[in-house]
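Our collaborator T.R. sent over the components below with a one-line note: 'Predict the complex.' Nothing else. No constraints on interfaces, no templates requested, no preferences about which chain binds where. So this is a plain run: every listed entity goes in together, and whatever single assembly comes back becomes the starting point for the next discussion.
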Amino acid sequence: MTDISKEAIMPPRSFLSQDAIQVFYRLLAALLICAVLAVLSDSFLSLGNILNVLRQASLTFFIASGLTLVVLTAGLDLSVGANVALSACIAGTVIHKTGSPALGILTGLACGGIVGLLNGIMVTALRIPSFIATYGMLWVLNGLTYWYMAGETLHGFPAGFRQIGSGYLFGLPIPVYLLLVFLGIGTFFAQRTIWGQEIYAIGANPVAARLSGIPVARRLLLVYAVSGLMAGLASIIFLSRLNSAEADIGESLTLPAIAAVLIGGTSLFGGVGTVFGTFIGALILTLVLNGMNLLSVSANWQPLVTGIIVILAVWLDMKTRRRTQ
Amino acid sequence: MREAAVASEPNPLQRIPGVAIVLVLLIALFGAIAPGFLSVANLSNVLVQSTILTMLALPMTLIIMTEGLDLSMGAVLTLTSLCVAIVSLATKSMLLGLGAGLLVGVAFGTVNGWLVAILGIPPFVATLGTLGMAQGLSLIVSDGQSVVGIPHSVRDIYSATLVGIPVPIVMALVTYAAFHGLLYHTRFGTYIFALGGNREALRYAGLSPNRLLIAVYAIGGAMAGIAGLLMTARMNSGHPTAGLGLEFDAIAAVAVGGTSFERGNGWLLGTLLGVLSVGVLRNGLNLISLPSSVQVASVGVLVIVALFLDGLRSRA
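Returned assembly:
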């Protein structure tokens, strides 16, 4: 019994594990896209554009990194985009009312975290399937946000606050530093802590995880709360970058975040995937959308392409796994 | 549960209370607090406004019975509504418009079914992908603009009456009768119960579950096409966000109506009552001048409560 549970909790991870190979393929794909874009468009390799890609990818990554943990447990969080919108609007209001960015940031994070916690409660205590529970939450949040904003737009935030999303440090956008920090934290948490490994175990086999003594409900609660918290963080960065908040800013965020997770090789069926993979996924998706932009394809095409990418990514993932098994 | 999946007629007595009580409570509540709610004009308004949702919720019931989900329905309806508008504008023919809408709807439904059945992609992700695709195509064909100036023949469908009954209601009733006959009185209907309840049994009986599944999703697409015609007629234009979130109202109606998400059990009359509950809720909130955002949020709460109760029942 102890041997089995240990194996379930701590799968062997050598340097060239299956995960590493999967990430390697995706890095190659990202480089290939870069090469194609460099040939097709003169402006792709300009410093400004590359920094722009990184900044854009980091926004997708913040939402997608928390989502990765949820998907690792074989769940899904469809409410992340709506959560970003509500958190941004509430944080923006707090900053306007109190003049204190710190208070606004805290409220935004708290709002995101509470929404995530509610998702977790619906999935664990009420036992509603996660995709339906978070889909219901999406519309509840949408409704709340539109009602709260009543068609208004918040704009004009303190210059210091705006630095978070649009400022530079040593030539790199500040969100990129945040990306590196959270990439590190996320990877360490998932790969090197017991809690992280327990999350993999829950996704791989929830029954085995429960039988080996993992507090499944508490870990799931944590995972959904983290997903909400990361949405809260993303909302702060959005707010400071756009310098405005509107009720509809979250509508185009969920599908790209899910796409990034799936392109990154995290399996919808749980237990397989890495936070680093999600970073590469966010990068690939951003490169594709950026490339379309540079080749002056209308932004109207973006949802179509993102949708196709989501389906392709799941299909490829299922195909490669079937072959390796 | 096996028995319920095999028998084509579920035991409705057990479930009548849930959704019927919800509906009666909502009517009583708004009758008391919303001025004019109980007037004949308003109630018939609720019925007419519920017709589009009926056309989505009925096929959604079948899809959910197969332990599936179609998140793309609202976006596909938007696209078919635009197709109806564009084609009928170009050809001045309502029937050609409807044909175009049906064609696009069935194509999307078939793709959904193919992704779910043949490729084995989980339904909520497969249809989330096609949601994005339909949304994108809607933006592309309309260039983000409304399509206006559609012919009278399309517009009249929503306002015309047949022996005193508004045509949309007639269409919804015919649809309900067709689905009722299909689910409870044909072999195909029995197979749908088996798709969710016992898929292996279908295989042993020499049937192809995959083909049946594709057919179920294709029916959903076809209904989105017909509902697209009604939507275009109702708005008197094609609009690139016309059907935004409608799939959620449909899922809400199905969930409130007592169709289970996990056991292959469906109840069409329950779905119909669920549609009316959603319609009454939205209309009542509208009458007491709460904005549509609150309506959206309250439908979300309605779904979560219904699913929670569904979970309680399944454990009881």
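Summary for T.R.: Chain A has one domain: 17-319.
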